[in-house]
Design goal:
N-terminal domain of TfIIb, alpha+beta, binds zinc ion, three-stranded antiparallel sheet
Length: 87
């Protein structure tokens, strides 16, 4: 038998529903979302958590910022900085 959720990992909480290919995609997102993140303000690891979709906060320094839906920083972040400087 072994571990029940060997293939889909954290997406195993969905049970047999939604099909395996969808659960595999969800697994990749959940691993990214729940993994340890580095705070962009104080640099501490493991204190960052997601408040809601795209909203992230740090338990240590108390900062709240917008990021990607499943990660604290999106790949587009460098481009958004340019717009902030323009203002
Ligand atoms: Zn912090």
């Amino acid at each position: 038998m072994g571990r029940r959720t060997k293939i889909v990992g954290p997406a195993g909480s969905y049970g047999p529903r939604y099909g395996v290919s969808v659960r595999k995609r969800v697994r990749d997102i959940l691993i990214k979302k729940r993994g340890p993140h580095v705070c962009p303000f104080c640099g501490s690891v493991g204190t960052v958590y997601r408040v809601a979709v795209g909203i992230w906060a740090c338990r240590k320094c108390g900062n709240v910022w917008t990021g990607a839906a499943y990660t604290p920083r999106s790949g587009l972040a460098p481009y958004f900085k340019k717009y902030i400087i323009k203002e």
